[in-house]
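DEPOSITED CHAIN:
***
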Amino acid sequence: MKKLSDIITEEMQKAFKGAGYDEKYARVTLSNRPDLCEYQCNGAMAAAKEYHKTPVMIAEEVTALLADSQVVEDVQAVKPGFINLKVNGKYLSDYLNRMCEDDRMGYEKAENPRTVIIDYGGPNVAKPLHVGHLRSAIIGESVKRIVRFAGHKVIGDVHLGDWGLQMGLIITELKERKPKLPYFDENYEGEYPKEAPFTIAELEEIYPSASKRSKEDEAYKEQAMQATFELQQGRRGYQALLKHILNISVTDLKKNYADLNVEFDLWKGESDAQPYIPDMVQKMRDEGFAYTSEGALVVDIKEESDTKEVPPCMILKSDGASLYTTTDLATIVERMKLYHPDEIVYVVDKRQEMHFIQVFRCAKKCGLADEHTVFKFLGFGTMNGKDGKPFKTRDGGVMRLEYLLSDINEEMLKKIRESRPMSEDEAGEIAKVVGLSAVKYGDLSNQASKDYIFDVERFTSSEGNTGPYILYTIVRIKSILKKYEEAGGDAKAALIPTFENESEKALMLEIARFGSVMENACEELAPHKICAYIYGLANAFNKFYHETSILGTEEEAQKGGRIRLLMLVKQVLETCIDLLGFEAPERM
């Protein structure tokens, strides 16, 4: 099903061509003056220079050929040469009725589906999730759902931080606390215990303790670095400990991500890329891309068009140890071998942009990825407190994610208790659902690259541009539909009628934009475009609701048609919030 804007553009192309002008000037856009018109075409302004005529003369010739259009009406040429358009009411209602017949509401799947890997989440094992992990999880999950809804094959990978010094620190601290464990006996040849020698709570205490000590005790840090090296060289006992750490950490992480309604297709980490490193490094050496500089192995990736310095990409340190760059490149090798992606998207803090410029250029230069593979860096800004600084706890520490969600849920629970009587169990369940909408919408309604203020009071408000406001709108529609059904109504076969007032038409026009918004959000990997759309749609519905009789309409066909319109609004809103990663309760 074509987008409404494309259909109007085709009408305009026929008119431009019929008037003797190139149809390239016929592009139609949403009006930036909705008080004057619904769509506009500024092509006459651009065509004037080529055809040596005044813009308004061209505009008038074109509009004259649109007089009999079944798609647009009230077409006006306005000085100095704008063409203002309004959609034909009958055509608009027909268009919405076609949307009703389609499960995807007219949004067609991609003709040439791509395989897309989305790298998001990126938590370190043995450490609890904190607020710094929120944006990657929320943005990445939404982008994954949007691209998948567009018809592409999408693979979400958490890409765990499970390698490097942090593992050596845990092993060293555990050895000091429990030196008799078989993992530390180099001569041990038996099977290692199936049960881990620690709980998740102990593990989360071990790492910060070891990290703190390593900053004060140089000898201890040397031991940790040696343990890291031995782990990376395949020491059997340390590999067994790594498995325990991963099993316990991933189990806990899955529970925490589930609370955020975030799911990953792959639970791979840096350690999974290790087997690919030796051959990758050898290939770089053999093909002359990698060379030794001050003891380290590097690849030059500078380009003539660079306006700022792009340092060489370091592959191995002088002691032969690998870096984040190494594991990220080896992960690309692994992904190309196992999944053959057309595109890999990294949802990461924007401050890591230079690192990924180096990784992407090095992968392309050294032939680690196919020539057609596209790399995208979706860098996100900082989540800040009301003071404008990175979000912290009252005592200045980094807040655990589960505590943040708990605070949001408590605030929502308080508001729900104040709004209407219901059981504590029901209130608690609704608070979780609405609280998650507050957190996710509060984040996603901002452009990903921008910093934003995390304001609990504003995010949990049921008024304004917030998640709870969107959910209140959906719940209001559900309530109307339920009353209609309880009275014996069945609007599934009803047809949406031609609008009777301006607020009804405004609502219909907003619904008709669904396909365009989805296409744009997918192309730009931009969940905030969906947020802006559903806020506008919710506002249009609520204006229509307050100005129009729905259940009170006496004429049954009109009542059924308006109920069918509400069903379509609900379907669009629920589809969109699912793409944002949350859902609506039955009541609030």
Remarks:
- The first strand starts at residue 29 and ends at 30.
- The mean pLDDT is 95.
- The chain has 21 helices and 13 strands.
